Amino acid sequence: QVQLVESGGGLVQAGDSLRLSCAASGGTGSIATMAWFRQAPLKEREFVAHIWWSGSYTSYADSAKGRFTISKDSAQNTVYLQMNTLKPEDTAVYYCAAKPTWVSNYVYWGQGTQVTVSS
Predict the structure, then answer these.
(1) Measured distance CA(82)–CA(90) in Å, rounded
(2) Mean confidence (pLDDT) of the chain
């Protein structure tokens, strides 16, 4: 019922910045939490950041603290991930995810957007 579409990925150099966007549509009224995850080529999916859909509480993985900022535009049903001081180890496919109010896990996922950081 909820559809998520990521955009904003690309190829950048170390030290550059990118802003990822996640546009939500459908039954967005059921969303409790939005989050960003990423998966590098030979690694498992890892949590990056999340934000309450109602309210402003946020949390970050240690790898993202101080460099990444998650935010939202509720009027446009869009979540952002501002990524600064990018490092080659940030290279991954970045996924947007949503957690409905009635479950304890993320059940809605976007298709992913590739972020590649060169040295």
Answers:
(1) 13
(2) 96
